[in-house]
Amino acid sequence: MATINDIASKLGITKGTVSKGLNNASDISEEMRKKILETAVELGYVNRRRQKREKKLCILVENMEYHTPNQFGHDIVLGFKQMAEPDGWTVDIIPIQMEFQRGTPYGVFMMERGYQASFILGLTLLDPWMQELRTSRIPTVLYDNYIKENPNVASVGCDSQEGFELAVKHLTKLGHKKIGLISGPLESYILKARYNAYLSAMDRFGLEINERYIGLGYYVNDSTKKYIPQLLREGVTAILFSHDVRAISAITECDDRGIRIPEDLSIIGFDDLPMTAHTTPPLTTIRQDRIALGKCGFYALSSLLNHVAIGSILLRAQLILRDSTGPVAPQIGPMNPRTLPQEPDKATSQTYPANLPDPALSKPEHHTDQAGQFT
C-alpha cells in the first residue's frame, strides 16, 4: 500500500507538502493540491487516519430523479440508507453530470471529499468515469451497469432476462405471436441487456425476430409517435417497452389515435413505477423491487469494503399483471387511418438491425440509462 513517502518521492516534494495537499490545507496552491491528489489515487494511497475519524459513503446520481416517492431513484436511495445509516455511516447524495466527470477524475473526487466507497446510479457507457472505473481501487457498486475484471467494482440490478421471459410467456398464452420492442438507443449497459433479453425470450418461445418489430429512439414521445403506427402496420399485436416511462407515453399515444388497449394492442412496461397502477388502463409491467435494490447496493458495498470481491447481484423479476394486456383479437378490415400517419423526421429516432444482432451484444452479461442516459 502506498504511503505519503511514496507520493513525496514521485513528485519530488516534502512529506509535509503532501500532507497539506491530502488534508486540504489553505497554504498550498490548487495546482499542487491537484497533483498530490492525482498521484495519491494513481499509487493507491488510502488515508486510514481520516477514515477512522469519519465513516462516509456517497450515492452518486446521474440521469435519475430521486427526490419524491413517485420518482424512480427515491426507493433505491431509501433502501441504501436504511442499511447504511444504522451501521454508522454518513451517506451523502450527490448529483453528477458528464461535464463534471470530464474535469474531475473519480478517484480525486472521492479522496478530496473523504468518501470511502460509493453507490453509483445512472451512468451510461459514454460517461468518462466508466473508463476510470475499469482500474479504480475504490470500492464501488454500480446500479444497472457492469465493469469486467475489477474486483473493487460490483453491480446490482434486476434480472432482465427473467423479466422478459415472464412477459413473453404471458403474451403467448394470450395468443400473441408478433411481439415488438420499443426502447432507447443501445448506449447503456441496461438497454443492451434488455434488448438482448427480448431477443432471447422471443427465440425461446419460437417467435419471429424481425427488425421491423423493433424501434429504438432517443426521445420518448417522438419515438412513440413513430413506432406505434409502424409496428401496427407490421401486424404487431403486443409491444414490450424498455421502461415504464415509454409504455406510459404509448398509452397516451394510443388514446390520441383511437387505438384501444388492450383490445387492439397489448403493452408491457419495465420498472413498476408508482404511477403505473393509475394509468388508464393500469399498466402491466415487470417489477423491480427498488427498496431491495438499494439494500443490495449497501450489502455489495459492505462486502467490497471487507475485501469480498462480489461481481453481480441480480434480484428476481416479477410480472405485475394489470389491464394493459389481453387476448389477441382477430383483425377485421383495414387499420384506422389515424394510426398510419406519415413518418416523422428521422433525426429524432433511430432503427437497429435487430434480426442480425450485434455480435458484441448477442449474449447479455449478467450484470444493468436505469439508467441509461435516455429512458
What does this structure look like?
Helices cover 38% and strands 16% of the residues. With 375 residues, the protein is α/β, with parallel strands linked by helices. Among the domains are: 1-45, lambda repressor-like DNA-binding domains (434 Repressor (Amino-terminal Domain)), CATH 1.10.260; 163-287 and 321-361, 3-Layer(aba) Sandwich (Rossmann fold). The strands form 2 sheets. A 7-stranded mixed beta sheet has the order 12-10-9-8-6-7-13, sandwiched between helices. Helix 1 crosses helix 3 (30-43), helix 2 (15-22) crosses helix 3 and helix 3 (30-43) crosses helix 7. The two termini are 41 Å apart. The relative contact order is 0.15.
Please describe the topology of this protein.
Layout: H1 4-11, H2 15-22, H3 30-43, H4 48-53, E1 56-61, H5 72-84, E2 90-95, H6 98-103, H7 106-113, E3 117-121, H8 128-132, E4 140-143, E5 153-158, H9 160-173, E6 179-183, H10 189-204, E7 214-217, H11 220-233, E8 238-241, H12 244-257, E9 266-271, E10 284-287, H13 290-305, E11 312-315, E12 318-320, E13 349-350
Parallel strand pairs: 1-2, 1-3, 3-4, 4-5, 5-11, 6-7, 6-8, 8-9, 9-10
Antiparallel strand pairs: 7-13, 10-12
CATH architecture of the domain at 163-287 and 321-361: 3-Layer(aba) Sandwich
Q: Give the strand line-up of the largest sheet.
A: 12-10-9-8-6-7-13
- Helix % is 25-40%
Q: How much strand content do the residues show?
A: 15-25%
Instruction: Classify the secondary structure makeup into a structural class.
Output: alpha/beta
